[in-house]
TrEMBL record:
GO terms for biological process: methylation. Pfam families: Methyltransf_25. Signal peptide: none annotated. Keywords: Methyltransferase, Transferase. This is Methyltransferase family protein. Gene3D superfamilies: Vaccinia Virus protein VP39. InterPro entries: Methyltransf_25 (IPR041698), SAM-dependent_MTases_sf (IPR029063). The keyword Methyltransferase applies. Residues 45-146 form the Methyltransferase domain. It comes from Modestobacter roseus. The keyword Cell wall biogenesis/degradation does not apply. One of its GO terms (molecular function) is methyltransferase activity.
Length: 213
Protein backbone atom coordinates (compact mmCIF):
# COMPACT_ATOMS: atom_id res chain seq x y z
CA UNK A 1 0.00 0.00 0.00
CA UNK A 2 1.37 3.40 -1.00
CA UNK A 3 2.44 5.74 1.81
CA UNK A 4 -0.31 8.30 1.31
CA UNK A 5 -2.98 5.64 1.17
CA UNK A 6 -1.76 4.31 4.52
CA UNK A 7 -2.02 7.85 5.86
CA UNK A 8 -5.67 8.02 4.77
CA UNK A 9 -6.38 4.61 6.28
CA UNK A 10 -5.25 6.05 9.60
CA UNK A 11 -7.01 9.41 9.48
CA UNK A 12 -10.30 8.13 8.01
CA UNK A 13 -12.18 8.23 11.36
CA UNK A 14 -11.40 11.93 11.85
CA UNK A 15 -11.05 13.07 8.23
CA UNK A 16 -14.34 14.96 8.11
CA UNK A 17 -13.41 16.88 11.27
CA UNK A 18 -9.83 17.79 10.38
CA UNK A 19 -10.06 18.26 6.62
CA UNK A 20 -11.17 21.89 6.79
CA UNK A 21 -14.27 21.09 4.75
CA UNK A 22 -16.62 23.70 6.16
CA UNK A 23 -14.23 26.62 6.76
CA UNK A 24 -12.25 26.24 3.52
CA UNK A 25 -12.99 23.50 1.01
CA UNK A 26 -16.78 23.22 0.69
CA UNK A 27 -17.25 26.03 -1.88
CA UNK A 28 -14.75 24.40 -4.26
CA UNK A 29 -16.53 21.07 -3.99
CA UNK A 30 -19.92 22.65 -4.71
CA UNK A 31 -18.49 24.63 -7.63
CA UNK A 32 -17.00 21.49 -9.18
CA UNK A 33 -20.28 19.62 -8.83
CA UNK A 34 -22.18 22.55 -10.36
CA UNK A 35 -19.70 22.57 -13.25
CA UNK A 36 -20.59 18.96 -14.07
CA UNK A 37 -24.11 20.09 -15.10
CA UNK A 38 -25.58 16.89 -13.71
CA UNK A 39 -29.16 15.95 -14.45
CA UNK A 40 -31.58 13.53 -12.81
CA UNK A 41 -30.36 10.06 -13.70
CA UNK A 42 -26.72 11.04 -14.49
CA UNK A 43 -23.96 8.46 -13.87
CA UNK A 44 -20.98 9.95 -12.07
CA UNK A 45 -17.50 8.53 -11.45
CA UNK A 46 -15.74 10.08 -8.43
CA UNK A 47 -11.98 9.45 -8.32
CA UNK A 48 -10.46 9.45 -4.83
CA UNK A 49 -13.95 9.78 -3.34
CA UNK A 50 -12.68 9.45 0.23
CA UNK A 51 -15.37 9.60 2.93
CA UNK A 52 -18.00 10.61 0.40
CA UNK A 53 -18.35 14.32 1.08
CA UNK A 54 -19.57 14.64 -2.52
CA UNK A 55 -22.42 12.20 -2.00
CA UNK A 56 -25.16 14.48 -0.70
CA UNK A 57 -24.70 17.40 -3.11
CA UNK A 58 -24.50 14.95 -6.02
CA UNK A 59 -27.62 13.08 -4.88
CA UNK A 60 -29.50 16.37 -4.69
CA UNK A 61 -28.85 16.79 -8.43
CA UNK A 62 -29.08 13.27 -9.85
CA UNK A 63 -31.76 11.80 -7.58
CA UNK A 64 -32.33 8.14 -6.77
CA UNK A 65 -32.20 7.24 -10.47
CA UNK A 66 -28.63 8.54 -10.79
CA UNK A 67 -25.42 6.67 -10.05
CA UNK A 68 -22.47 7.57 -7.84
CA UNK A 69 -19.50 5.29 -8.49
CA UNK A 70 -16.74 6.13 -6.03
CA UNK A 71 -13.18 4.85 -6.43
CA UNK A 72 -10.63 5.12 -3.64
CA UNK A 73 -7.46 3.30 -2.61
CA UNK A 74 -8.34 3.39 1.08
CA UNK A 75 -10.80 0.85 2.48
CA UNK A 76 -11.24 2.88 5.65
CA UNK A 77 -12.17 6.04 3.74
CA UNK A 78 -14.65 4.01 1.67
CA UNK A 79 -16.10 2.49 4.81
CA UNK A 80 -16.90 5.99 6.09
CA UNK A 81 -18.45 6.88 2.74
CA UNK A 82 -20.66 3.80 2.88
CA UNK A 83 -22.04 4.88 6.25
CA UNK A 84 -23.30 8.26 5.06
CA UNK A 85 -27.07 8.61 5.05
CA UNK A 86 -27.01 9.52 1.35
CA UNK A 87 -25.12 6.30 0.57
CA UNK A 88 -27.36 4.06 2.67
CA UNK A 89 -30.61 5.32 1.20
CA UNK A 90 -29.52 5.56 -2.42
CA UNK A 91 -29.52 2.38 -4.53
CA UNK A 92 -27.26 3.93 -7.19
CA UNK A 93 -24.13 4.12 -4.98
CA UNK A 94 -21.20 1.76 -5.64
CA UNK A 95 -17.93 2.21 -3.77
CA UNK A 96 -14.92 0.43 -5.24
CA UNK A 97 -11.49 0.00 -3.65
CA UNK A 98 -8.63 0.41 -6.12
CA UNK A 99 -5.72 2.45 -7.39
CA UNK A 100 -6.84 5.28 -9.68
CA UNK A 101 -3.69 4.94 -11.78
CA UNK A 102 -4.32 1.23 -12.53
CA UNK A 103 -6.56 -0.27 -15.22
CA UNK A 104 -10.20 -0.30 -14.06
CA UNK A 105 -11.52 -3.37 -12.28
CA UNK A 106 -14.46 -5.35 -13.63
CA UNK A 107 -16.54 -4.08 -10.69
CA UNK A 108 -15.87 -0.47 -11.63
CA UNK A 109 -16.75 -1.06 -15.29
CA UNK A 110 -19.89 -2.92 -14.36
CA UNK A 111 -21.03 -0.18 -12.00
CA UNK A 112 -20.63 2.47 -14.70
CA UNK A 113 -22.53 0.47 -17.30
CA UNK A 114 -21.52 -0.10 -20.89
CA UNK A 115 -21.77 3.51 -22.05
CA UNK A 116 -19.36 4.95 -19.49
CA UNK A 117 -19.84 7.83 -17.06
CA UNK A 118 -21.81 10.96 -17.92
CA UNK A 119 -19.48 12.91 -15.66
CA UNK A 120 -16.18 12.46 -13.81
CA UNK A 121 -15.26 14.29 -10.60
CA UNK A 122 -11.90 14.53 -8.79
CA UNK A 123 -12.14 16.53 -5.57
CA UNK A 124 -8.91 17.22 -3.69
CA UNK A 125 -7.39 13.92 -4.79
CA UNK A 126 -5.25 14.22 -7.93
CA UNK A 127 -2.58 16.47 -6.38
CA UNK A 128 -1.70 13.74 -3.89
CA UNK A 129 -1.36 10.97 -6.46
CA UNK A 130 2.26 10.87 -7.64
CA UNK A 131 1.38 9.96 -11.21
CA UNK A 132 -1.73 12.10 -11.39
CA UNK A 133 -1.64 12.30 -15.22
CA UNK A 134 -2.06 8.49 -15.26
CA UNK A 135 -5.05 8.80 -12.91
CA UNK A 136 -6.51 11.53 -15.14
CA UNK A 137 -6.11 9.38 -18.27
CA UNK A 138 -7.67 6.36 -16.56
CA UNK A 139 -10.58 8.48 -15.28
CA UNK A 140 -11.45 10.21 -18.55
CA UNK A 141 -11.21 6.87 -20.39
CA UNK A 142 -14.20 5.83 -18.27
CA UNK A 143 -16.26 8.84 -19.36
CA UNK A 144 -18.52 8.62 -22.39
CA UNK A 145 -17.74 10.88 -25.35
CA UNK A 146 -18.82 14.40 -24.45
CA UNK A 147 -18.86 13.71 -20.69
CA UNK A 148 -18.32 16.60 -18.29
CA UNK A 149 -15.26 16.37 -16.05
CA UNK A 150 -14.34 18.49 -13.04
CA UNK A 151 -11.07 18.81 -11.14
CA UNK A 152 -11.18 20.53 -7.76
CA UNK A 153 -7.74 20.87 -6.21
CA UNK A 154 -5.22 22.99 -4.34
CA UNK A 155 -2.11 25.08 -4.72
CA UNK A 156 -0.43 27.51 -2.33
CA UNK A 157 -2.65 30.58 -1.83
CA UNK A 158 -1.53 33.62 -3.79
CA UNK A 159 -3.61 36.28 -2.07
CA UNK A 160 -5.00 37.02 1.37
CA UNK A 161 -3.66 37.35 4.92
CA UNK A 162 -0.33 35.71 5.69
CA UNK A 163 -1.77 33.38 8.42
CA UNK A 164 -4.40 32.08 5.98
CA UNK A 165 -1.73 31.43 3.36
CA UNK A 166 0.39 29.60 5.96
CA UNK A 167 -2.61 27.46 6.92
CA UNK A 168 -3.22 26.59 3.27
CA UNK A 169 0.39 25.39 2.96
CA UNK A 170 0.06 23.41 6.17
CA UNK A 171 -3.12 21.74 4.90
CA UNK A 172 -1.38 20.69 1.69
CA UNK A 173 1.66 19.39 3.52
CA UNK A 174 -0.35 17.43 6.10
CA UNK A 175 -2.61 15.96 3.42
CA UNK A 176 0.31 14.89 1.26
CA UNK A 177 -0.60 17.12 -1.70
CA UNK A 178 2.08 18.23 -4.16
CA UNK A 179 1.89 22.04 -4.23
CA UNK A 180 3.27 22.09 -7.79
CA UNK A 181 0.92 19.50 -9.31
CA UNK A 182 -1.83 21.88 -10.59
CA UNK A 183 -3.87 18.98 -12.03
CA UNK A 184 -6.69 21.27 -13.27
CA UNK A 185 -4.37 22.01 -16.20
CA UNK A 186 -5.56 18.73 -17.70
CA UNK A 187 -9.11 20.09 -17.98
CA UNK A 188 -7.81 23.24 -19.66
CA UNK A 189 -5.70 21.20 -22.10
CA UNK A 190 -8.14 18.43 -22.99
CA UNK A 191 -11.64 19.87 -22.63
CA UNK A 192 -13.84 22.48 -24.26
CA UNK A 193 -16.47 24.75 -22.69
CA UNK A 194 -14.35 25.13 -19.54
CA UNK A 195 -15.80 26.74 -16.39
CA UNK A 196 -13.26 28.19 -13.94
CA UNK A 197 -13.35 29.11 -10.26
CA UNK A 198 -10.47 30.63 -8.29
CA UNK A 199 -11.35 30.51 -4.59
CA UNK A 200 -9.80 31.11 -1.16
CA UNK A 201 -7.09 33.46 -2.34
CA UNK A 202 -6.20 31.14 -5.19
CA UNK A 203 -5.66 28.15 -2.87
CA UNK A 204 -8.66 26.26 -4.32
CA UNK A 205 -8.84 25.90 -8.08
CA UNK A 206 -11.78 24.40 -9.94
CA UNK A 207 -12.05 23.59 -13.62
CA UNK A 208 -14.93 21.81 -15.30
CA UNK A 209 -15.09 21.07 -19.00
CA UNK A 210 -16.44 18.80 -21.71
CA UNK A 211 -14.46 15.85 -23.07
CA UNK A 212 -14.22 15.45 -26.83
CA UNK A 213 -17.37 13.96 -28.35
C1 LIG B 1 -7.65 14.50 0.46
S1 LIG B 1 -8.60 13.04 0.28
C2 LIG B 1 -9.99 13.68 -0.64
C3 LIG B 1 -11.18 12.81 -0.47
C4 LIG B 1 -12.48 13.35 -1.12
N1 LIG B 1 -12.38 13.41 -2.56
C5 LIG B 1 -12.83 14.69 -0.56
O1 LIG B 1 -13.00 15.64 -1.34
O2 LIG B 1 -12.98 14.80 0.67
C6 LIG B 1 -7.71 12.15 -0.98
C7 LIG B 1 -8.25 10.75 -1.23
O3 LIG B 1 -7.53 10.20 -2.35
C8 LIG B 1 -7.33 8.82 -2.11
N2 LIG B 1 -6.21 8.34 -2.93
C9 LIG B 1 -4.90 8.65 -2.82
N3 LIG B 1 -4.18 8.03 -3.76
C10 LIG B 1 -5.06 7.29 -4.49
C11 LIG B 1 -4.93 6.42 -5.60
N4 LIG B 1 -3.73 6.21 -6.18
N5 LIG B 1 -6.04 5.84 -6.09
C12 LIG B 1 -7.26 6.05 -5.52
N6 LIG B 1 -7.43 6.87 -4.46
C13 LIG B 1 -6.36 7.48 -3.95
C14 LIG B 1 -7.06 8.76 -0.61
O4 LIG B 1 -7.26 7.45 -0.11
C15 LIG B 1 -8.05 9.78 -0.09
O5 LIG B 1 -9.28 9.19 0.24
Amino acid sequence: MAGRTRQYELIAPVYDLVSGEWPVYRPGRLAGIAGLRLRPGSRLLVVGCGTGLDLRPVHERVGDGGRFVGLDASRQMLARAGRRPAARGWPGVTLVQGDATAPPSGRLLEALGGDGADAVLCTYALSLIDDWPAAWRAAVALGRPGARVAVVDMQPAQRGPRPARALARLAMWSGGADPAARPWRAVEEHCTDVDRWDLRGGHVQVRAGTLPG
